[in-house]
């Protein structure tokens, strides 16, 4: 394993151009040598990828909303008890996220997806910033906060649809097809991940290079994909400012924020194009 110590964040000389310390650049150069158009590349992203955009985690002590923790609100039972309260929280989250913009990590991954036809991005994030950066095909394990569906699964409604109104005019918002309540198109605690997304993520672990960026590698099944990729022969990489439980088991660790590390990799690729 090649591990690099954390370095200071330097905002660089212009917008969207963060720079990394020399150790991070050396690790980034190692990753750059291993990616390209012919390489089967899978990148799995977590909340850390959106941190530089100002998206809060909504979890932990800093994630408290009013008197509630996410675990108390993001459940089917909570929605059944008080759909207005749950939607007040999600409406607030949507307003926070709507003010955020994709950062350099999102931009680089979107650029790779355009250039490298065998690259795929799997995300645990629901904020939609990958798509706003121009990434067309994202495997979303936890759904999207910008999609909704009828909580009653009424016959007239599609399985889900986009609703980007901020703020929402009515809480809880009514289903336009039956007048019942719609709910956010995200996976709640106690619910299974979408089978099609899990299947695509599982298939994506058969790759040449697997990068876990901005994720703690604690939440399963997403955490298991990194280890599965290594068992299947992939060169595994962790990009994270702090050590995680996966750090000791990967081939390369880049100790930096995703926006810094991925920008450094992209610069190496551009220099040798």
Beta-strand content estimate: 15-25%
Order of helices and strands: EHEHHHHHEHEEEEHEHEEH
What is the mean predicted local confidence, pLDDT?
A: 90
Give unreliable regions as ranges: 1-17
CA-CA gap between termini: 27 Å
Tally of DSSP helical segments = 10
CATH topology tier name of the largest domain: Rossmann fold
Helix % is 25-40%
> Biggest β-sheet, characterized?
7 strands, parallel
The main sheet orders its strands as: 1-10-9-8-2-3-4
**Count of separate structural domains:** 2
By DSSP, the count of extended strands is 10
CATH superfamily of the largest domain: TPP-binding domain
What is the structural class? alpha/beta
What's the Cα radius of gyration?
19 Å
Approximate shape: elongated
List the helices and strands and how they pair.
Blueprint: E1 2-3, H1 22-32, E2 41-45, H2 47-51, H3 70-73, H4 76-81, H5 83-98, H6 104-115, E3 119-123, H7 129-132, E4 138-140, E5 143-150, E6 161-162, E7 182-186, H8 195-204, E8 209-213, H9 222-231, E9 235-239, E10 252-254, H10 258-271
Parallel strand pairs: 1-10, 2-3, 2-8, 3-4, 8-9, 9-10
Antiparallel strand pairs: 5-6, 5-7
């Amino acid at each position: 394993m090649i591990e690099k110590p954390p370095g200071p964040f330097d905002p660089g000389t212009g917008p969207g151009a963060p720079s990394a310390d020399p150790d991070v650049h050396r690790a980034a150069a190692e990753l750059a040598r291993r990616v390209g158009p012919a390489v089967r590349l899978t990148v799995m992203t977590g909340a850390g990828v959106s941190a530089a955009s100002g998206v809060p985690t909504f979890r932990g002590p800093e994630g408290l909303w009013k008197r509630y923790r996410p675990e108390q609100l993001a459940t089917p039972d909570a929605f059944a008890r008080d759909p207005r309260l749950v939607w007040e929280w999600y409406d607030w989250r949507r307003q926070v996220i709507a003010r955020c913009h994709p950062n350099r990590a999102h931009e680089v991954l979107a650029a790779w997806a355009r250039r490298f036809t065998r690259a795929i991005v799997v995300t645990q994030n629901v904020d939609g910033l990958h798509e706003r950066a121009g990434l067309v095909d994202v495997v979303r394990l936890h759904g999207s906060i910008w999609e909704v569906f009828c909580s009653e699964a009424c016959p007239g409604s599609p399985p889900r649809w986009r609703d980007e109104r901020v703020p929402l005019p009515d809480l809880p918002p009514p289903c336009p097809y039956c007048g019942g309540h719609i709910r956010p198109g995200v996976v709640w605690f106690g619910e299974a991940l979408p089978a099609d997304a899990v299947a695509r993520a599982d298939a994506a672990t058969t790759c040449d290079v697997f990068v876990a960026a901005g994720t703690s590698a604690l939440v399963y099944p997403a955490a298991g994909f990194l280890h599965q990729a290594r068992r299947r022969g992939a060169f595994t990489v962790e990009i994270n400012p702090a050590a995680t439980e996966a750090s000791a088991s990967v081939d390369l660790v880049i100790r930096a924020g995703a926006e810094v590390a991925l920008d450094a990799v992209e610069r190496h690729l551009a220099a040798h194009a």
